[in-house]
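Re: beginner question about structure tokens

> Can someone show what the tokenized structure looks like for a real chain? I only ever see the sequence side.

Sure, here's an example I had lying around. Input first:
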Amino acid sequence: MNMNLEPHIKPDVWTMPDKGLSWCDCGKDHPLTLDIVTGFAEELGIKAQDSISHHELVELTMEVWNYESVCRFFHLVLNESAERVHGSVADSYPLGIGLDIVGYFSKTWQGCPDEDCWGED
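And the corresponding structure tokens:
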């Protein structure tokens, strides 16, 4: 199995600055890394594959963000991330590209603009 996990966009997804919300709510504000996303993929059984389906990409991104459900804005931004990294939204992606899509999404996700999606305090 040949797993090419090298970055697929310039600048490298994993070194680009975070422009969005913090992916982790632990309060330590640590950056998301390829190793962290790979760990989540392993937990979901995705790491052993050569490719990742778009459905699995949604599941992996939800897992990284600890979301139980997502809205249409999440899907729109994930699709935009796929277009930026892969060039288009596809049924499946090579694993390395899929991980980069999760990284790009996570570095740019601003959250849902609809207050109804945020829940109540």
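Each token stands for a local structural state, so reading them left to right follows the chain. Residues 72-86 form the longest helix (15 residues).
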